[in-house]
Design goal:
The two termini are 27 Å apart. The protein is mostly helical and 180 residues long. A two-stranded antiparallel sheet has the order 1-2.
Amino acid sequence: MNIVQPIRDKELIKDIKDYLKEQSERNYILFLLGINTGLRIKDLLSLRVRDVEGWSIYIKEAKTGKPNEIFMPPKVKKAVRQYVKDKDKNEYLFKSRQGKNKPITVSMAYYILRDVAEEFDLERIGCHSLRKTYGYHHYHINNSVVGLMKMLNHSDPEITLRYIGVQQDDLNKMQKKMDL
């Protein structure tokens, strides 16, 4: 089973951000927002400049239809503010080079992350890794599965723990102790 995983190592996340910043500010901001908001890739790609002008992103989630408010941490807000400073309010945040004002596709976002995976020799990385990375670190920083469950709009804490790979981490720790 090849299920995408969160990026667990904070040093690696910093290296990926540095790499993307060198490559493309758009791709850097996509990664930064993805790992700091927990939004699904389709919701990220639907964002326009006007959606990130305040401290919070207000969105109706494409998958669930539920409204959601996501506060942007100060460092993220500062980077986003710099990124959008000369952009039109109606411009897509992650604008494609194809067409007049179209967002990049999910396939293009996947390609960006596959490039990262190749550069850093990572396996099981895809678009959903951004959301899972957010979840994994949110859980370890706040130690609140219920809070994270609400942020991700999950219906059960068990689903949330499995989703972010915490259960697998615990199983791996137990397995490391085996030495028969």
